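Q: I'm writing a short methods note and want an example of a predicted protein-small molecule complex. Could you take the sequence and the SMILES for NAP and return the bound structure as tokens? Please keep the output block clean; save any remarks for afterwards.
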Amino acid sequence: MNETSLAGQTVVIIGGSSGIGLATARQARSAGAELIITGRNKERLERAGNEVGALTTATVDLADPVAVDGFFTGLPARIDHVLVTGGGPTYSPIVDLDFDEALRVLDEHLLGALRIARACAARVRAGGSLTLITGTHARRPGVGLSIAAIAAAAVPVIAANIAVELAPMRANVIAAGFVDTALSARLLGDQFDRRRDELRATLPIHRVVGPDDVAAVAIQLMTNTAVTGATYDVDGGQQLIP
Ligand SMILES: NC(=O)c1ccc[n+]([C@@H]2O[C@H](COP(=O)([O-])OP(=O)(O)OC[C@H]3O[C@@H](n4cnc5c(N)ncnc54)[C@H](OP(=O)(O)O)[C@@H]3O)[C@@H](O)[C@H]2O)c1
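A: Understood, no commentary inside the block.
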């Protein structure tokens, strides 16, 4: 049966202190969920935790597998949903690629997803969910996009395997295009406003995708118990335009 709300359910958001994760935390709280949110920066995390009335907050770095395992071990015996945001991308032309950095990012996104799934499987109740976030870079090659493309191509495959192997926990992916968040502002620097104007002028939706747009799909993936092994694009039609 599909649930109509998240009342009485515990939602864990890895990277819940900003952007897509914080927007999802707000919407999950409005839908009645108890929240456990994480981030690396303690101050930002406490601010977000207070704002959404989180049950608990924890500083966890996805780049630290021991800390990730320790975090899951410390969770309540039964949780309902886990959303993993956080773990930023790396962009570099192949000729300049720093292979150590590339390996670190791929380990965090790919094996990291499996580590989290394994840790979740012991705690997420039947029909609960794990949602991973990636990008749409695998759909169109471009200079500097190879590592982001590998991650974007692999994460849906990883989620589909999790959905089969670790059922009845469900596993899904959101593939986002440009989202108007602090991460995008950081990555684009002084090109941020120009890029947003360009997207408003060219995207089929005639506006920029915001974190609440992605969060709404994340909530849908938590509550719709028919969906598993799926990847949902949220990009305002960005990949359809030249
Ligand atoms: N924004 C976009 O256009 C876009 C597009 C496609 C995919 N995505 C992906 O969506 C996810 C969320 O992006 P966003 O735009 O919402 O970013 P954001 O606003 O920077 O928020 C990222 C959240 O994750 C936490 N975080 C970052 N790195 C982490 C790490 N290594 N370990 C643990 N927590 C970490 C951040 O807190 P701390 O910094 O304090 O740790 C913050 O709470 C990212 O994986 C991003 O690659 C974003």
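A: Remarks, as requested: The radius of gyration is 17 Å. Helices lie at 19-30, 42-52, 65-73, 99-121, 146-165, 182-188, 192-202, 211-223.
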